[in-house]
Amino acid sequence: MANPILRQKLASRQFITAPGIQDMIAAVIANKVGFDIVYGSGYWTVASAYGLPDAGIASVTQMVDRMATLVRTCNAAVVADADTGFGGLLNVHHTVQAYEQAGITAIQIEDQEFPKKCGHTPGKRVVPAEEMADKIRVAVEARRDENFLIIARTDARQSEGLEGVLHRMKLYAEAGADILFPEALTSDEEARIVTSSLDKPMMANMADGGLTPIRDAKTLQSLGYSMAIFPAMTSLAAAAAMESALLNLKQTGTSLSPDVPLFNFKEFCSLIGFEDVWAFDKKWAR
Known about the structure:
Oligomer: single chain
InterPro entries: ICL/PEPM, Pyrv/PenolPyrv_kinase-like_dom, Pyrv_kinase-like_dom_sf
Protein name: Carboxyvinyl-carboxyphosphonate phosphorylmutase
Radius of gyration: 20 Å
Number of domains: 2
Structural class: alpha/beta
GO molecular function: oxo-acid-lyase activity
Strand order of the largest sheet: 2-3-4-5-6
CATH topology of the largest domain: TIM Barrel
Shape: globular
Pfam family, one: PEP_mutase
Protein backbone atom coordinates (compact mmCIF):
# COMPACT_ATOMS: atom_id res chain seq x y z
CA MET A 1 0.00 0.00 0.00
CA ALA A 2 1.16 3.53 -0.76
CA ASN A 3 1.88 5.73 2.23
CA PRO A 4 -0.73 8.54 2.40
CA ILE A 5 1.73 11.00 3.91
CA LEU A 6 2.75 12.55 0.60
CA ARG A 7 -0.83 13.27 -0.45
CA GLN A 8 -1.58 14.61 3.03
CA LYS A 9 1.40 16.96 3.09
CA LEU A 10 0.59 18.30 -0.36
CA ALA A 11 -3.03 18.89 0.64
CA SER A 12 -1.98 20.80 3.77
CA ARG A 13 0.69 22.73 1.81
CA GLN A 14 3.57 21.50 3.96
CA PHE A 15 6.80 21.84 2.01
CA ILE A 16 8.49 18.48 1.47
CA THR A 17 12.27 17.98 1.46
CA ALA A 18 13.26 14.49 0.31
CA PRO A 19 16.87 13.30 0.29
CA GLY A 20 18.06 10.91 -2.38
CA ILE A 21 18.78 7.41 -1.07
CA GLN A 22 21.15 5.36 -3.21
CA ASP A 23 21.61 2.26 -1.08
CA MET A 24 20.52 0.63 2.16
CA ILE A 25 23.32 2.15 4.24
CA ALA A 26 22.00 5.58 3.29
CA ALA A 27 18.50 4.30 4.08
CA VAL A 28 19.28 3.32 7.66
CA ILE A 29 21.12 6.60 8.27
CA ALA A 30 18.07 8.48 6.95
CA ASN A 31 15.98 6.43 9.39
CA LYS A 32 18.23 7.59 12.23
CA VAL A 33 18.06 11.25 11.19
CA GLY A 34 14.30 11.04 10.74
CA PHE A 35 12.88 11.76 7.28
CA ASP A 36 9.28 10.91 6.49
CA ILE A 37 9.67 11.02 2.68
CA VAL A 38 12.76 9.98 0.69
CA TYR A 39 13.62 9.75 -3.00
CA GLY A 40 14.80 6.62 -4.79
CA SER A 41 17.03 8.14 -7.46
CA GLY A 42 17.51 6.28 -10.73
CA TYR A 43 20.94 7.79 -11.38
CA TRP A 44 22.39 7.03 -7.96
CA THR A 45 20.61 3.72 -7.38
CA VAL A 46 21.97 2.34 -10.65
CA ALA A 47 25.45 3.75 -9.94
CA SER A 48 25.45 2.23 -6.44
CA ALA A 49 23.98 -1.17 -7.28
CA TYR A 50 25.48 -1.83 -10.69
CA GLY A 51 28.27 0.68 -11.33
CA LEU A 52 26.50 1.87 -14.48
CA PRO A 53 25.50 5.29 -15.85
CA ASP A 54 21.91 6.55 -15.81
CA ALA A 55 21.30 5.83 -19.49
CA GLY A 56 18.34 3.45 -19.55
CA ILE A 57 20.56 0.40 -19.03
CA ALA A 58 18.95 -0.99 -15.86
CA SER A 59 15.74 -2.92 -16.51
CA VAL A 60 12.36 -2.39 -14.89
CA THR A 61 12.85 -5.68 -13.01
CA GLN A 62 16.16 -4.50 -11.57
CA MET A 63 14.73 -1.12 -10.60
CA VAL A 64 11.59 -2.53 -8.98
CA ASP A 65 13.68 -5.00 -6.99
CA ARG A 66 15.95 -2.23 -5.77
CA MET A 67 13.06 0.07 -4.89
CA ALA A 68 11.21 -2.73 -3.08
CA THR A 69 14.32 -3.28 -0.95
CA LEU A 70 14.43 0.44 -0.25
CA VAL A 71 10.77 0.40 0.86
CA ARG A 72 11.49 -2.54 3.18
CA THR A 73 14.51 -0.80 4.71
CA CYS A 74 13.17 2.76 5.02
CA ASN A 75 10.82 4.03 7.69
CA ALA A 76 9.88 6.78 5.25
CA ALA A 77 7.56 6.88 2.26
CA VAL A 78 9.51 6.34 -0.98
CA VAL A 79 9.14 8.46 -4.11
CA ALA A 80 10.72 6.46 -6.94
CA ASP A 81 12.29 7.31 -10.28
CA ALA A 82 10.84 5.14 -13.07
CA ASP A 83 12.64 6.73 -16.03
CA THR A 84 10.37 6.77 -19.10
CA GLY A 85 8.12 4.01 -17.82
CA PHE A 86 10.56 1.59 -19.46
CA GLY A 87 9.00 1.63 -22.91
CA GLY A 88 5.60 2.22 -24.51
CA LEU A 89 2.12 2.44 -23.05
CA LEU A 90 1.86 -1.23 -22.11
CA ASN A 91 5.23 -1.00 -20.37
CA VAL A 92 4.01 2.03 -18.43
CA HIS A 93 0.91 0.14 -17.32
CA HIS A 94 2.95 -2.76 -15.93
CA THR A 95 5.62 -0.47 -14.48
CA VAL A 96 3.05 1.45 -12.45
CA GLN A 97 1.49 -1.72 -11.09
CA ALA A 98 4.89 -3.24 -10.26
CA TYR A 99 6.03 -0.14 -8.38
CA GLU A 100 2.72 0.11 -6.56
CA GLN A 101 2.91 -3.56 -5.51
CA ALA A 102 6.45 -2.88 -4.23
CA GLY A 103 5.05 -0.34 -1.77
CA ILE A 104 6.19 2.84 -3.51
CA THR A 105 4.27 6.02 -2.66
CA ALA A 106 4.83 7.99 -5.87
CA ILE A 107 6.35 7.22 -9.26
CA GLN A 108 8.17 9.69 -11.51
CA ILE A 109 7.86 9.25 -15.30
CA GLU A 110 9.72 11.48 -17.75
CA ASP A 111 9.16 12.48 -21.37
CA GLN A 112 12.55 11.56 -22.79
CA GLU A 113 13.08 9.14 -25.62
CA PHE A 114 14.09 5.65 -24.53
CA PRO A 115 16.83 4.95 -23.59
CA LYS A 116 16.86 8.06 -21.45
CA LYS A 117 19.77 10.19 -20.22
CA CYS A 118 20.39 11.84 -16.87
CA GLY A 119 18.48 15.13 -16.87
CA HIS A 120 21.62 17.16 -16.17
CA THR A 121 23.84 15.62 -18.86
CA PRO A 122 24.00 16.26 -22.64
CA GLY A 123 22.18 14.35 -25.35
CA LYS A 124 18.60 14.35 -24.03
CA ARG A 125 15.79 14.05 -26.57
CA VAL A 126 12.10 14.23 -25.72
CA VAL A 127 9.14 12.37 -27.20
CA PRO A 128 6.15 14.27 -28.64
CA ALA A 129 4.14 15.90 -25.88
CA GLU A 130 0.93 13.99 -26.67
CA GLU A 131 2.81 10.70 -26.49
CA MET A 132 3.90 11.53 -22.96
CA ALA A 133 0.40 12.73 -22.05
CA ASP A 134 -0.90 9.30 -23.07
CA LYS A 135 1.68 7.71 -20.77
CA ILE A 136 0.32 9.78 -17.89
CA ARG A 137 -3.26 8.77 -18.73
CA VAL A 138 -2.23 5.11 -18.76
CA ALA A 139 -0.35 5.50 -15.47
CA VAL A 140 -3.33 7.12 -13.77
CA GLU A 141 -5.65 4.39 -15.00
CA ALA A 142 -3.24 1.59 -14.02
CA ARG A 143 -2.90 2.52 -10.35
CA ARG A 144 -5.17 0.89 -7.79
CA ASP A 145 -4.46 3.00 -4.71
CA GLU A 146 -5.47 6.68 -4.67
CA ASN A 147 -2.50 7.41 -2.40
CA PHE A 148 -0.11 6.24 -5.12
CA LEU A 149 0.76 9.49 -6.90
CA ILE A 150 1.92 10.08 -10.47
CA ILE A 151 4.72 12.60 -11.08
CA ALA A 152 5.12 13.86 -14.66
CA ARG A 153 8.58 15.15 -15.53
CA THR A 154 9.56 17.10 -18.61
CA ASP A 155 13.11 17.38 -19.90
CA ALA A 156 12.12 19.85 -22.63
CA ARG A 157 13.90 22.92 -21.22
CA GLN A 158 17.16 22.35 -23.12
CA SER A 159 15.55 21.45 -26.49
CA GLU A 160 12.26 23.40 -26.56
CA GLY A 161 12.92 26.24 -24.15
CA LEU A 162 10.61 27.49 -21.43
CA GLU A 163 7.62 27.64 -23.77
CA GLY A 164 8.00 23.93 -24.40
CA VAL A 165 8.12 23.25 -20.67
CA LEU A 166 4.95 25.29 -20.06
CA HIS A 167 3.09 23.60 -22.92
CA ARG A 168 4.03 20.14 -21.72
CA MET A 169 3.26 20.81 -18.07
CA LYS A 170 -0.24 21.93 -19.04
CA LEU A 171 -0.84 18.79 -21.10
CA TYR A 172 0.47 16.49 -18.37
CA ALA A 173 -1.69 18.21 -15.75
CA GLU A 174 -4.75 17.73 -17.95
CA ALA A 175 -3.78 14.06 -18.40
CA GLY A 176 -4.09 13.57 -14.64
CA ALA A 177 -0.60 13.96 -13.17
CA ASP A 178 -0.68 14.63 -9.43
CA ILE A 179 2.68 16.43 -9.34
CA LEU A 180 4.56 18.24 -12.10
CA PHE A 181 8.33 18.11 -12.40
CA PRO A 182 10.01 20.67 -14.70
CA GLU A 183 13.54 19.31 -14.90
CA ALA A 184 16.77 21.29 -15.30
CA LEU A 185 15.42 24.83 -15.07
CA THR A 186 18.33 27.23 -15.00
CA SER A 187 17.24 30.18 -12.83
CA ASP A 188 14.87 31.34 -10.10
CA GLU A 189 13.00 33.42 -12.66
CA GLU A 190 12.29 30.35 -14.78
CA ALA A 191 11.06 28.57 -11.68
CA ARG A 192 8.64 31.39 -10.83
CA ILE A 193 7.25 31.46 -14.36
CA VAL A 194 6.64 27.70 -14.43
CA THR A 195 5.23 27.28 -10.92
CA SER A 196 2.81 30.18 -11.40
CA SER A 197 1.51 28.78 -14.69
CA LEU A 198 -0.60 25.97 -13.21
CA ASP A 199 -2.41 25.26 -9.96
CA LYS A 200 -0.65 21.94 -9.42
CA PRO A 201 2.03 20.85 -6.94
CA MET A 202 5.47 21.13 -8.52
CA MET A 203 8.71 19.39 -7.62
CA ALA A 204 12.19 20.88 -7.81
CA ASN A 205 15.32 18.83 -8.44
CA MET A 206 18.22 20.07 -6.35
CA ALA A 207 20.86 18.01 -8.13
CA ASP A 208 24.24 19.06 -6.78
CA GLY A 209 26.53 19.75 -9.75
CA GLY A 210 23.58 20.00 -12.16
CA LEU A 211 22.04 22.78 -14.22
CA THR A 212 19.61 24.12 -11.59
CA PRO A 213 20.90 26.47 -8.86
CA ILE A 214 20.76 24.87 -5.41
CA ARG A 215 18.33 26.67 -3.11
CA ASP A 216 17.15 25.91 0.42
CA ALA A 217 13.64 24.73 1.29
CA LYS A 218 12.39 28.16 2.33
CA THR A 219 13.53 29.73 -0.93
CA LEU A 220 12.08 26.93 -3.04
CA GLN A 221 8.73 27.29 -1.33
CA SER A 222 8.80 31.02 -2.00
CA LEU A 223 9.46 30.22 -5.68
CA GLY A 224 6.23 28.24 -5.78
CA TYR A 225 7.43 24.67 -5.39
CA SER A 226 5.62 22.17 -3.16
CA MET A 227 8.52 19.77 -2.72
CA ALA A 228 12.17 19.27 -3.54
CA ILE A 229 14.37 16.25 -3.98
CA PHE A 230 18.10 16.30 -3.24
CA PRO A 231 19.03 13.16 -5.20
CA ALA A 232 22.82 13.51 -5.35
CA MET A 233 23.71 14.80 -1.89
CA THR A 234 24.17 11.55 0.04
CA SER A 235 25.95 9.84 -2.85
CA LEU A 236 28.39 12.69 -3.45
CA ALA A 237 29.01 13.06 0.28
CA ALA A 238 29.67 9.33 0.59
CA ALA A 239 31.98 9.34 -2.45
CA ALA A 240 33.97 12.26 -1.04
CA ALA A 241 34.25 10.59 2.38
CA MET A 242 35.33 7.26 0.86
CA GLU A 243 37.94 8.92 -1.33
CA SER A 244 39.36 10.74 1.67
CA ALA A 245 39.45 7.56 3.75
CA LEU A 246 41.05 5.51 0.98
CA LEU A 247 43.70 8.14 0.30
CA ASN A 248 44.53 8.20 4.00
CA LEU A 249 44.83 4.41 4.09
CA LYS A 250 47.05 4.38 1.00
CA GLN A 251 49.30 7.09 2.37
CA THR A 252 49.51 6.07 6.04
CA GLY A 253 48.68 2.37 6.06
CA THR A 254 45.98 2.75 8.70
CA SER A 255 42.30 3.63 8.94
CA LEU A 256 42.95 5.87 11.94
CA SER A 257 43.16 9.59 11.29
CA PRO A 258 41.65 12.70 12.92
CA ASP A 259 40.82 13.86 9.39
CA VAL A 260 38.76 10.74 8.58
CA PRO A 261 35.68 10.47 10.81
CA LEU A 262 34.22 6.97 11.03
CA PHE A 263 30.65 6.12 11.99
CA ASN A 264 30.42 4.18 15.25
CA PHE A 265 30.50 0.46 14.42
CA LYS A 266 28.38 -0.63 17.39
CA GLU A 267 25.72 1.92 16.52
CA PHE A 268 25.71 0.80 12.90
CA CYS A 269 25.24 -2.82 13.99
CA SER A 270 22.14 -1.66 15.83
CA LEU A 271 20.85 0.35 12.86
CA ILE A 272 21.24 -2.56 10.46
CA GLY A 273 19.40 -4.98 12.75
CA PHE A 274 22.02 -7.05 14.55
CA GLU A 275 20.31 -6.59 17.91
CA ASP A 276 17.38 -8.64 16.58
CA VAL A 277 19.81 -11.33 15.43
CA TRP A 278 21.49 -11.45 18.83
CA ALA A 279 18.14 -11.60 20.61
CA PHE A 280 17.04 -14.46 18.35
CA ASP A 281 20.26 -16.36 18.94
CA LYS A 282 19.91 -15.90 22.71
CA LYS A 283 16.30 -17.10 22.70
CA TRP A 284 17.08 -20.28 20.78
CA ALA A 285 20.50 -21.06 22.30
CA ARG A 286 20.88 -24.55 23.76
